[in-house]
Design brief:
Distance between the termini: 22 Å
Order of helices and strands: HHHHEHEHEHEHHEHEH
Strand content: 5-15%
Radius of gyration: 17 Å
CATH topology of the largest domain: Rossmann fold
Length: about 230
């Protein structure tokens, strides 16, 4: 399940996700008809149109018994939690965030790598991960790669300030929250900032670019794929 932001801005994340899943022996299917999961109108309160988009998503991705995996906690949370609110009389379909699938469904807690990745990494946890019970699975996989030093993050659950439409409707507050998060992430001078959600990557990356900070910011799937 490719996300909108992945499709528009982070194509390499989609490619990395496929590479990771195929490395695990999965037969990956990508339906080019897929569009948005419906989260933007849902978050904006336009549930009428959110239902229309969600129905389209359901008909394309959840019409058979294939397991749906996405490199985004927010899209997984929308399917599992948002659809329950949109269609309360129906059982919501299952969609797994990538690290959740690897650790919880496949039982893989250490990522076998062919080479070290010698970086000091600050990992940002996306807020939507809490909605689906993520508790550090991506960090666990990343930290198991030889050469990586996963830096401790004070107040790791702190929001980056993106919040989808929130960053548009409340740009000044969003920027203040993001700046506070960046100060936390940059405190120990990491080599890279890593996260599991493209919205967070886009928001934090944009703020870093405006500040003239060239520190790389990546999705963890790109690291997993790189060291295979």
């Amino acid at each position: 399940m490719l996300t909108c932001l992945c499709d528009a801005f982070y194509g390499n994340v989609g490619i990395a996700t496929v590479k990771v899943l195929e490395h695990l022996g999965c037969d990956v299917h990508f339906d080019e008809r897929q569009t948005c999961c419906g989260q933007p109108p849902f978050n904006a309160g336009d549930w009428k149109h959110a239902r229309e988009v969600a129905r389209n998503c359901q008909s394309i991705l959840f019409s058979d018994d294939k397991l749906v995996v996405t490199p985004s906690a927010s899209c997984a949370a929308m399917v599992r939690e948002g659809y329950h609110l949109l269609f309360p009389e129906e059982h919501p379909p299952a969609a797994f965030e990538l690290s959740e699938y690897i650790v919880k469904e496949r039982g893989i807690t250490e990522w076998k790598s062919s080479k070290p990745y010698k970086k000091r990494i600050a990992f940002h946890r996306a807020c939507h991960g809490r909605a689906i019970g993520l508790s550090g699975q991506a960090e666990q996989l990343v930290a198991s790669i030889p050469g990586i030093e996963l830096l401790p993050i004070h107040n790791a659950e702190q929001c980056c300030g993106f919040g989808g439409a929130f960053c548009v409707s409340e740009p000044h507050l969003s920027a203040q929250i993001g700046q506070a998060k960046l100060e936390t992430l940059l405190a120990d001078q990491p080599d890279e900032i890593v996260s599991g959600d493209m919205g967070c990557l886009m928001h934090l990356g944009g703020m870093l670019k405006r500040d003239g900070n060239q520190i790389p910011i990546r999705h963890y799937s790109e690291i997993l794929a790189e060291v295979i």
